Amino acid sequence: MKAIICTKYGSPEVLVLREIDTPVPKDDEVLIKIRATSVTASDCLIRGLNAPFLFKFVVQLMMGFGKPRNPILGMTSSGIVERIGKNVTRYGVGDPVFAYGAISPTKLRFGSYAEYISLPEDWNIARKPDCLSFEQAAALPYGGLLAWHFIKKANIQSGQQVLIYGASGSIGTMALQMAKNAGATVTAVCSGNNFKMVESLGADKVIDYTRDCAATKLEAYDLVLDAVG
Questions:
Q1: Are 120 and 29 in contact, with CB atoms under 8 Å apart?
Q2: What is the mean pLDDT of the chain?
Q3: 3-class secondary structure per residue, 145-167
Q4: How many helices (H) and strands (E) does the chain have?
Q5: CATH code of the domain in which 166 resides
Q6: Is the pLDDT of residue 2 over 90?
């Protein structure tokens, strides 16, 4: 299969296209023929390693020193199940699915910059809804799962006031929609260029953080979600 290989940490030029063996699924794994993937902020941070020393050390401790142990990056994917291990019961050959290669900070499976990926069936895998394209499904897990984690913890009640800082990013756009679905009144903080987009997703109010008067627009909120950090 064809795959994008990360030969070392550095600029995008360290990524090269190569032909490698197709993975063979273990007894509890499904082999997915990838139709779409996405390049996430985490992918770029790990590949570039352009960060303070402590961050670099922790990343290399987890991923490998000098270059990634698994040279194929990519955390999100969507596609068709092509093969299944003998113990797999949740999925069958031909199922359209989408997946996210992280369960926790210490349980990570990269590898979606390729034609195939093999993942345990109890990983973050779900059947793709018919109403979503493969491209749309591949864009969901990264921001969607992070946003859902915090929105669920917040236990938002109908009528509450919610402020989302960084509302136009992958996490913010998903959190905005989830908060609206819970019945909240949502204020979206982003640049003015993204006002139309966040309003189309349900934002009730918008604040342009680039304006000097931005802080004067703030009110009292039941929940503030910082999607920027």
A1: yes
A2: 92
A3: HHHHHHHHHHCCCCCCEEEEECC
A4: 6, 13
A5: 3.40.50.720
A6: yes
